[in-house]
Amino acid sequence: MAWAGLALRTGAAVTALLKPPQAAALAVRYASKKTGGSSKNLGGKSPGKRFGIKKMEGHYVHAGNILGTQRHFRWHPGAHVGLGKKKCLYALEEGIVRYTKEVYVPHPNNSEAVDLVTRLPKGAVLYKTFVHVVPAKPEGTFKLVALL
Q1: Rounded Cα distance, 131 and 106, in Å
Q2: Degrees to nearest 5, angle at CA 128 with 125 and 134
Q3: DSSP the chain
């Protein structure tokens, strides 16, 4: 008798699980507006400006070669290096590129630079990177001299 009651209960449970649910329970709500994303935050997709060093330490350069491009002064022109438009560094003579770090001592008339140095902690030293071109002396060549 107990087996019959158990079989009836399990059979009812199985049929309840297999029976499709009621239509009222299947009410699905769809979005009235489709998501299109946001039109904000469109910045930052511009291409890079290709700033930076073009010729590294020890590279041989000809006069007029661009040594580096920069937006702000990161490298300063040294010996035989010119400063072009938009702070571009270029070689004035043929030779080998060298980089040096030198202590920065501002001119006393430059109030901004003096103010910057005085705000540094005691004992701190400010350095700047300079780009130099060491001229290469061409061997076996001569200059023509105009005779008078």
Answers
A1: 19
A2: 135
A3: -HHHHHHHHHHHHHHHHHSPPPTGGG-----SS-----S----S-SPP---EESS-TT-EE-TT-EEEE-SS-SEEE-TTEEE-GGG-EEESSSEEEEEEEEE----TT-HHHHHHHHTSPTT---EEEEEEEEE---TT--------
Q: Which two tokens stand for residue 101?
A: 């770090």
Q: Per-residue pLDDT tens for 35-92?
A: 766 666 667 788 889 999 999 999 999 999 999 999 999 999 999 999 999 999 999 9
